[in-house]
Amino acid sequence: MSKIKIKDLKDIDWAEFWNKKMDETGNRGKDWNKAAEKYSKLAEKDNYTEKLIENMILDKNDTLLDIGCGEGSVTIPLSKRVKYITATDLTEKMISILNSRINDENITNIKTIKEDINNITLDKYGHYDIVLGSRVINGIKDIENVILNLNEIANKYVFLTVFGVNNWKIERDFYKYINKEYHDRPEYTVLLNILSNLGIYANVKNLDVGPIRSYEDINDAINNGKWNCQNFTRKEKEKLKEYLEKILDKNPKTGKLENKHDKPDWILIWWKVEK
Questions:
Q1: In terms of pTM, does the model score above 0.85?
Q2: Among residues 68, 73, 85, which one has the least CA distance to residue 48?
C-alpha cells in the first residue's frame, strides 16, 4: 500500500476530520435540562472559573459575549470584571437558573438569550470586545463556520476552552477494561490546526484545574462521575462498579474515594483578533 504524501499541513481538511470524530462520538445522551440543577453544584467543586478568568485579558469597559453560558458559573463572576455581558445558551433550564441568580444578586449588566451557537452571527449580535466559548466548543460540529462567526464578532479577543487529552482518561480506561471500542472527541490540537488553516494563530494554556474528584462511595462515583450509564448494558453497569472498586482509593484524611487521574483537564485557546 502506497503512503499518502502530505507536503503541507494546510493540505489536510482538519474541519472534516473534526466532524468525522464528532460523528463517531455520537450523542452522549446528556439531557442538559435535567442536568442543569446538579451542574451548578458540580461547578463549585473545582477552580475552573478562577483559573479561566485569571488567564483572560479583560478591561472594565469591555463588552463580552458569553456563548454556552450554562447556569452562569463563569458569567456571574465575569460580570464584576467587564461593562456588559450578553449570555447565550441553548438549554432553557440553564437560562432559567442564570436569570434567577441575576435577580437574586441584583445584577444589572447581564442579558440572557436562549440561542443555538450555530445561529450566533455578526448580523444578529453585532460586535463585542470579547467573545468567550467556555466548555462548549467540544460539542460543536460545524466548527469552522462557528469559529469564523465568533472571530468576526470579537473586536479584541476570542477565548475558548476545550477538553485536554486527559479529561476522559478514566472513561477511556474503563472501555479498554471491558474490551469495548471508545470514540474520543477530537483533541484540542485539531482545533489549533483548523484555526491555523483559517489564518488564526492561537495561544494555548493548560488551565491546570483541580482538585481531583472525590466520592462518598461507589454509588456516588457512578451517579456523579462522568458516566452515561443509560448507554450501558446491565452487565456493563456491573463491570463499571467492579472497575471503580479497583481504581478508587480511600483518602485517609477525608474518608472519600479518589483516583489521581480523575480530575478535570481543560485547555484555554485564545487569540487577538486582527481586523
A1: yes
A2: 73
